[in-house]
């Protein structure tokens, strides 16, 4: 069974990789992740606020203690991981402005990373900032990174764009080699008695995969760029669904944090069993089998499904 895949120009033994997580801070854990069967590792992010803490009034005050690794330590950890394991390592930058901090892409390249993920994590609350400005700033960030770094670049996006397919095409033209769908915005709760925000990290569940499947199916029919699913992959079925929607890579984090690195091997074996049982010889035969390339009128199809679900719901008094 051939599970190999091409992601960001890299040949991976299979699509299952470790997504951005704190697990990379321990070399022993990184070795366990490789031994367990991960095909690649994504570093957690190096943040704009770490590199340019006074870059603009929109930043909250941050301190070095809030981050696991300083910028210099981050680069050193890339070197150590590359010396410790043989699987590809993907660095990560997280920020929202086109500034000198993006020059760290070159340093991440020089430290030995095989590719880079640019995580555009932004909730724009300024009513004077329109969608065109936000998209232009992100495209400019991509051009900046590509001008200073030679390694492949994936952009990790949120789903909250009014014309995501158009924006994805713009990012490709700006130089992005792939897209990661999607980052997860952490939603604060309210503490009524203290009247303050409550911040807590909720791990993903398989239900979150549905949004990723929709956009993987849409975008994979329109681009040759690499696509990766991030968020909601917890089982072999989840991973196979991402592939049939058009993904080239599948990132796991919550499942590994909850159950351990051995899940890479377990999920891979279950994927192989399913593919063999359904007479597939490679994942290339499966990939994109349910994307919108096979739907001549996607807008009409989407509306028809919407009406069908609502009508079915009304019949059971939903």
Task: Walk me through what this model shows.
This protein has 318 residues and is an alpha/beta fold. 41% of the residues lie in helices and 15% in strands. The protein contains twelve helices and 13 strands. The chain has helices spanning 27-36, 48-51, 71-84, 104-111, 131-148, 164-174, 209-220, 236-245, 254-259, 263-277, 283-286, 298-315; strands spanning 5-7, 10-12, 16-18, 41-42, 46-47, 89-94, 115-119, 153-157, 178-181, 189-191, 196-198, 226-230, 249-252. Strands 3, 4, 5, 6, 7, 8, 9, 12 and 13 form a nine-stranded parallel sheet that branches. Helix 8 crosses helix 10 (263-277). Mean pLDDT is 91; it is low at 55-59.
List keywords for this structure.
two-stranded antiparallel sheet; 13 strands; 41% helix; alpha/beta; 318 residues; single chain
Short summary:
The protein is of the alpha/beta class. It has twelve helices and 13 strands. Helix content is 41%, strand content 15%.
Distance between the termini: 44 Å
What is the subunit organization of this protein?
single chain
The secondary-structure element order is EEEHEEHHEHEHEHEEEHEHEHHHH
Molecular shape:
globular
- β-strand number: 13
Largest sheet report:
9 strands, parallel
Mean pLDDT: 91
Structural class by SSE content: alpha/beta
* Low-pLDDT segments, ≥5 res: 55-59
Amount of helix = 40-55%
Strand portion: 15-25%
The total of helices stands at 12
Radius of gyration: 20 Å
């Amino acid at each position: 069974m051939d599970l190999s895949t091409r992601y960001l120009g890299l040949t991976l033994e299979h699509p299952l990789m470790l997504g951005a997580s704190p697990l990379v801070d321990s070399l022993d854990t990184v070795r366990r992740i490789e031994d367990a069967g991960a095909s690649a590792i994504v570093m957690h992010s190096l943040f704009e606020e770490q590199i340019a803490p006074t870059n603009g009034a929109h930043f909250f005050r941050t301190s070095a203690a809030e981050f696991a690794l300083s910028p210099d330590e981050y680069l050193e950890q890339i070197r150590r991981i590359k010396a410790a394991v043989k699987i590809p390592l993907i660095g990560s930058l997280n920020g929202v402005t086109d500034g000198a901090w993006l020059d760290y892409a070159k340093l991440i390249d020089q430290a030995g990373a095989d590719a880079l993920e640019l995580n555009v994590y932004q909730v724009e609350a300024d009513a004077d900032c329109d969608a065109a400005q936000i998209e232009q700033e992100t495209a400019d960030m991509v051009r900046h990174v590509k001008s200073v770094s030679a390694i492949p670049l994936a952009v990790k996006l949120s789903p909250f764009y009014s014309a995501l397919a158009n924006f994805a095409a713009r990012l490709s033209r700006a130089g992005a080699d792939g897209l990661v769908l999607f980052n997860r915005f952490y939603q604060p709760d309210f503490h009524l008695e203290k009247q303050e925000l409550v911040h807590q990290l909720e791990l993903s569940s398989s239900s979150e995969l549905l949004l990723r499947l929709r956009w993987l199916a849409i975008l994979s029919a329109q681009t040759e760029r690499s696509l990766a699913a991030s968020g909601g992959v917890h089982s072999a079925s989840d991973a196979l669904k991402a592939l049939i929607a058009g993904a080239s890579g599948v990132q796991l984090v919550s499942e590994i944090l909850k159950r351990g690195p051995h899940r890479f091997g377990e999920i891979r074996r279950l994927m192989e069993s399913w593919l063999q049982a359904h007479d597939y010889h490679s994942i290339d035969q499966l990939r994109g089998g349910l994307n919108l390339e096979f739907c001549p009128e996607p807008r009409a199809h989407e509306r028809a499904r919407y009406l069908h679900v609502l009508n079915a719901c009304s019949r059971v008094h939903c």
